[in-house]
């Protein structure tokens, strides 16, 4: 039983691809990031990423790590015996991450194994779309697919979203360009054509699509625009063949959690951001 790490995407996919594809909803982040790296190149997020996988007693992959600096090190759910060796591996690295995102069930064991203090940060929840329930009433306006003409607006809103969420900035322009390339942004417009809310979707991988970057500027909030645009992109994903549509929410934001519950999303699992010292 041991961890293996590599910076070779093909080596990683050969080792852990079947494991990730077996649970596409829970592994949506890893699958979408890997798909982007495959299409856009290993330097899409900046520094070349680090991949890792845990092999259990029978030689089967039981967990995966993925790090694309400046973003946190991201972990799938791990078997209990994999947690302490992982903490040892990470704590001894020269480029030790500032943030490690874990499934809540692994958080206590990771903190206990870490040779220092751990501060708990943002808690998030993964939701899966069960049965779409469009909001009632639907706010005035319409949804439309964003185009390159919307690029500057999407970058500005993407940066505002990341700032409010307390995430890593990264290269927002590169992300916007990538999602525009597969028509992955939708805007809700008022009747006069003014954009008031946005939602984006990843490419479909292993039958799963993740909704993200749902953002409404403060002056347009509490009018139902976020629910409407999220429902619209969720419906489109299903119409285009997605078997799973998922999204993450910040557990500190009860408003967004309630919005997504009303339109048909149901909890799958919780994650915690841990900040080791």
What does this protein structure show overall?
By secondary structure, this protein is of the alpha+beta class. 35% of the residues lie in helices and 29% in strands. It has eight helices and twelve strands. The protein has helices at residues 9-21, 28-40, 80-91, 104-113, 151-165, 172-181, 225-239, 254-262; strands spanning 2-6, 50-55, 61-67, 73-75, 100-103, 118-129, 142-145, 185-189, 195-201, 208-215, 244-250, 265-276. A twelve-stranded mixed sheet has the order 1-2-3-4-5-12-6-11-10-9-8-7, sandwiched between helices. The longest helix is centred in the middle third of the chain and has 15 residues, at 151-165. The radius of gyration is 19 Å and the shape is globular. The two termini are 27 Å apart.
